[in-house]
Design brief:
Length: about 210
Amino acid sequence: MSEHEPDELGSALRVLAADASVPPTLSGGQIRRRGEARGRRRRALVATAAVVVLGTGAAVGVPWVMDGSKEGRRPVAIDPSIPSSAPVFVYAPPRIDIRTKVLTLRPAGEKARSFRLTMSDDVTAGKAKVAFKNPKMKLPALLSTPPETAYEVEVSWAVNLSLPNGEALYLVADHVSGIRMHPSVLRMPAADAKWVYDRLKVGDTVTLT
């Protein structure tokens, strides 16, 4: 090592020490103002981003609720004045057309259905009440050969209809084909009779016209 090298090293160290001891070129006020300016820029960016997000939500029909620093999505309210696309079926009293021999029934919330009945031509018109129901019972039938003799056969899904004059009619499943039933018995296919049995309630009014 030459004799000049220690002096050069010492000089370099002294320069570095002098640089470290030099006070900053900006004052405390300037540094504070620069920090405040950066803070304002950040807040402006955040506000701009919020406006963009709210605008996007409004464009797609999504309302927003702002509560301080919290954000939440509010469900879209349903306008009751706008009709629903799903049909609403209102209950209509059952009716038996004694001329065409058709029973029509429309329970609440269901489509109306009509059923062909096997019945006598001399059924009386009027308003009948469902007096009782029985899944199985015996009802009178008639022999087709004279002299006519009544006897009983077992039927299913029987619904008793009571007319104001005291006459009783019975809606039943037609599983006794070939047998001439009493005029008070109104028959229909078994599947239809079960459907009607399940939907008619005791106390319901059945109109015969």
